[in-house]
Amino acid sequence: MSDDHVYLTLAEGHEDDTRWAYGTGFEDPLHGVDTTVPDGVDAAALAALCVALGDDALVSAQRLGEWVTRAPELEEEVALANIGLDLLGQARLLYSRAGQTDGTGRDEDAYAYFRDAADFRNVRLAELPGGDFAFTIVRLLVLSSWRLAHFERLASHPDPVLSAIATKGAKELRYHRQYAAEWAVRLGDGTEESHRRMRRAQEQVAPYLGELFTAFDVRQEVVADLKQVTDAAGLPMPVYRPLPGCGREGEHTEHLAPLLAELQGVARAHPEATW
């Protein structure tokens, strides 16, 4: 199966080929959406969900941003930067919703810049160091497939704000998944060296897959996506080797704190600064 075929198959049924960064269009996904928490929706649980999904997006965006000036080609640098901006936009909306519903009234900056690593609830796969391009592609494929499956379910969430965020975000995540799938096939079915690196990347990612499926029950959708791509790339399916600990419970690797130090340094040094 060619990488073009994988791309077209994964995109099937989604004619809206959204490839631009969050915020570059003129459509506000929350325009006219009632921000009142609906009856029957647990506001605390809603806020916790928004924070967790926002943390996944923010940490992933920071890792993708590390490829700026370092990607193998200018086109890939722009693509990875735009994917990171998409995720950053999702994080901003999710943090804003969390602040509206958790009773604190915190804004997006408070969540992003003024929490310590132990307060973050992102999955650990997002925080691992960038590694080589193959690792970035394997991680992006896994995380985008997983996040897309969850966002497609959240599009029917009873909270209209989260539903709107998920509906908008799913359009972007389909492109993220397709981009990663194209590269996974090129590298897996490419040279001996690129195939070797993809196998190594799969081994590095595999221990963290169990945490994803524990966080949200979307295993069936994600496994189907991964199998389609790995079959086309001549790669095996990753073998789950679960590690103890859970990012959703504030248990992180040693890599998150220094990553957040880079992200939060200026804001903490000048907390009252304005543009």
Which range best describes the helical content: under 10%, 10-25%, 25-40%, 40-55%, 55-70% or over 70%? Answer: 55-70%
Q: Strand-and-helix sequence, N→C?
A: HHHHHHHHHH
Structural class: mainly alpha
Number of helices: 10
Oligomer: single chain
Reported for the largest beta sheet, the result is:
none
Radius of gyration (Å): 18 Å
How many strands in all?
0
The geometry reads as globular
Bin the strand percentage.
under 5%
Question: Uncertain spans, ≥5 residues at pLDDT below 50?
Answer: 17-24
Structure description:
It is a single chain. By secondary structure, this protein is an all-alpha fold. It has helices at 3-11, 43-65, 74-101, 108-113, 133-154, 160-188, 192-205, 209-215, 219-233, 256-269. 61% of the residues lie in helices and 0% in strands. Helix 2 (43-65) packs antiparallel against helix 3 (74-101). The radius of gyration is 18 Å and the shape is globular. The protein starts with a helix and ends in a 6-residue tail after the last helix.
Short account of what is shown:
The protein is an all-alpha fold and about 280 residues long. It is about 60% helix and about 0% strand. One of its GO terms (molecular function) is phenylacetyl-CoA 1,2-epoxidase activity.
